[in-house]
Amino acid sequence: MNDAARLFDQVLKKGKKLAAERFSRLRRGAANNTPAIDKYSLEASYFVDLFDFTKEDIRTSLSHLDGFRDENIEIKKVAWFIPEFEYAYFGGIHTIFRLAAFLKEKKGVKNYFLIIGQRNINKEIMDKAMAAAFPALDDQPIHVFDYIHEAETLGEFDATICTLWLTAYHSLKFNKTRRKFYFIQDFEPLFYPAGTLNAQAEATYSFGFLGIANTVSLKQIYEQDYGGTAEFFTPCVDTSIFYPDGAKDPNKEPFTVFFYGRPGHPRNGFELGLAALKRLKARMGPRVRIVTAGAGWDPGELGLEGIVENLGRLNYDKTAELYRHCDAGFVLMFTRHPSYIPFELMASGCLVVTNNNPANTWLLKDRVNCILSPPSASSLCEALEEGLVNTAQRLTLVRNAKMTIDHYTDWNREFEKIFAFMCRPSQGKELHKPDDYSVDTKSPLEIMEKPILKNDYPVDTKPTMDAGEKPSLKDDYPVDTRSPLDAGEKPILRDVTADGERVTHLYPNDCYFAHLSVYHFILPFVKGKIVLDAGSGSGYGSAYLADHGARFVEGIDVNPKAVAFCKEHFRRSNLRFQLMDLQGISGFPGHHFDVIFSSNVLEHVPDVRMFLTSAWRLLKPDGIMLITVPPITSEAARSADRKNPYHLNSWSPRKWYAVISQYFEDIQLYRHTCTRTDVILDFGNTPEQTIINERDFRFEPVDLTALYQGPTLSATFIVKNPRAGDTLPPPGEPVPDIEGSFTGPGM
Questions:
Q1: Of 237, 676, 292, 220, nearest to 443 (Cα)?
Q2: CA proximity to 485, closest of 495, 473, 470, 471
Q3: pTM of the entire structure?
Q4: Helix or strand run (H / E) with residue 165
Q5: If pLDDT is split at 50, 70 and 90, which confidence band does 121 have?
């Protein structure tokens, strides 16, 4: 038995008495005036002995796994290293058991749950809690061992999965397995201040395990910062439990605010949240009621009597019922994961108000489906008040949030992807492992890291901005009218770009990601839908929609070189490219498409009315169409646009609105901006200079007047409700002349 094991054994045997004696001694300090020690230091002093490793431990683990890295393994027996738990219905432990239940029910896997070094826990209570949450796991055993070597009595495993960072140390030294995975549900080093525990948690990311990441952000961190290999899943919501209350009166006062309040969990910003709520109550008085849940604590002890009502810990159904009856949900998160609370609030028809967090912009979009705020008490208070009193905006954001969350409801789909990765992680990926336990400090571009998504479609593999660069934005987000070749594009792209304004996935610079952001914006609308990409260009956007949930995507383009390029680079079972003129779309039955998408295309089409007539015929009555065009909001912008030889229609947003509204009744405009305040958008830069991705853009709903009053990269229209056929303009009718808009001759 080593020293760490002996120390832990002492703790197990003497328990709290030993800890109290040592803590008291350290607090008093020794005769030589040794500084007193706090609770953190006491915990850290134990953990540095209990959770220790050598380079040889890592080499042994990796050498054992090397023989299985590229092998296609049939996963039938899995060991989970888990922490002690009390409740199985919430948070990370709930997701662990959800995946385990999927593995058992859908894949015939036998799960073993291992808890190491906690002799005095009540195993029976945990067994019952797990089975109550997931009855399928009733016969899947929980095993409690004092030492990791005792788990070897369970035999060989096809895979082990560690969870909380503490359990990664157990997995490192357990080698009776063919494959090791790390179930990463948050960036756990941020659970602690910089120091011992932070370092111990971060060290586990370089153990060489295969990552199963909860959200794409954690996958990117694990791969880009630590050289690992991972697959991700996106959290989903059970909409049979979390759903809106259709009878709720949005104007009824007092407004109700829910706050996810958990003292003792710094990542949830408990103190900051309470300060914001005090200000909110002072400003709104009896017009607002504030309730909190998530942990048991007494508001009276914190001077919050009459300000906050704490409901303590609620069960799943009661939580959902609470969300349905609240007008706004206030949740803070300062790590790299949004937590499940925003998902559940959005599904329940409750406005989400939260802090800015760059890791979560793939889900939370300011003034599109939530309200984001800087992390100050006054700013958060203002955001909450805005969300409550501006009823029209709140209803729009709640409606958009529901459409967003409708994309995240299928756990089985997410876990199918994870299981495929567990069986064959090398499929389509380059497997990384640490070299002599050293983290590769090169950027992902330097180490030629593989793209995040399958096949030809790269997403955000760029290094972050160097420290010290000054943040700023270009005035009015000017569009670079040069072709990619003018900006230094490689000669191999000439055939697809030289005769048009096409960007391509082979040259992912700022311009590419700005265009791709429009496809990212439409994702919540395309899940399970039939989509027409009208003017598919080089095909990257059509493939993006096909890879992100669309049932089928038809990409059409007038250029034969572009169509040939698409067919060569993007082969999907749910994707087809055809050569077709947008002025004469044919071959599809009426009302065929759920979604029609046309981004930065119609400015090139000589007869826009012919396209709109086809779109009117092809769109389902309950379908939507997205149109994005250049934002000609000033004479200067129009003059610059006319110099672009590829643009035929230099139309203002008001003219586009007027023409589109002749075919469709409902039109919502969006301002399109970059959310990264630390970059200067440069549409002529190179991929190596690019540090943004498609999630770094925002689409803010605005009216026509507001669109003219601020910078925007594009004028984006979401269009619905086709008009009655007898009201359409007759063929050949001239388009209205509005604001000097100009249509030039074809090339």
A1: 220
A2: 495
A3: 0.59
A4: helix 165-172
A5: confident
